[in-house]
């Protein structure tokens, strides 16, 4: 089985940013993304989705390394100072590279 290397950029942040992040990642070269609801505890306390202000999302983007780096840099510059957000990047192997 042949695989190709890509990066998985994961963004966990306040749900109110979803539409803005979706526009950002597509504009910066991603071919798509996946969004799921997220809950947890961290530096900003418990994010349990008990009310709208505590809704979090997890956005995942599989893409080329340079696209992941560009998206991460933009998100850090644009959102880190004013929103609860974490980013991490992992190496992944994909079976259909043309999709990413």
UniProtKB/TrEMBL annotation:
GO terms for molecular function: enzyme regulator activity. SUPFAM superfamilies: GlnB-like. GO terms for biological process: regulation of nitrogen utilization. It holds the Pfam family P-II. InterPro entries: N-reg_PII, N-reg_PII-like_a/b, N-reg_PII/ATP_PRibTrfase_C. It comes from Pelomicrobium methylotrophicum. Gene3D superfamilies: 3.30.70.120. This is Transcriptional regulator.
